[in-house]
Amino acid sequence: MKKFRLQTALKVRERLEKLYQKALAQEVQTYQKLLDQCQVLHESQSENRTALDTSKQHGFTMPQLQVRDRFEQRLQYLIEISETQIQQQAQMVEVKQQELIGATQKKRILEILQEKQEREEHEIEEREAGMEADEIAQNLWRRPPET
């Protein structure tokens, strides 16, 4: 009976571990998307600065400068928001990693208990088989030879 409960608990732990793995994968995927978005914003900012420099060399008007400046400000604002989201997501990934580590440790504990239980059952079976063999040997030794 104990063996079945242990196997059931182990199956539950394995399912939980898979769920935690899936949750971690989703969080890592979201984190990677945020990093990619931030990279695109940085590239846009760099391109805007390059375009501003070239327009300064070739002549520009005040409205062009104002448009580029407002665009730069929006990009900077979006970059700050994106970096804040990245930090929050990194914390979320860390939390999910810790949950997965905990689930894996609990599953491993049950695996160790199951291995120990199987070893004990195997030792009991060997002992019983040895006792049965000893009993058979004693009975054969006590019995007089048949002629």
Number of strands: 0
CA gyration radius, whole angstroms: 35 Å
Helix-residue proportion? over 70%
Number of helices: 2
Poorly predicted spans:
none
Q: How far apart are the first and last residues' alpha carbons, in Å?
A: 50 Å
Major sheet characteristics = none
Question: Topology as H/E string?
Answer: HH
Protein architecture, described:
The chain is an all-alpha fold. The protein has one domain. The chain has two helices and no strands. The longest helix is centred in the last third of the chain and has 81 residues. It is rod-shaped, with a radius of gyration of 35 Å. The mean pLDDT is 89.
State the gist of this model.
This protein is mainly α.
Fold blueprint:
Blueprint: H1 2-58, H2 62-142
Helix pairs in contact: 1-2
List keywords for this structure.
mainly alpha, 147 residues, single chain
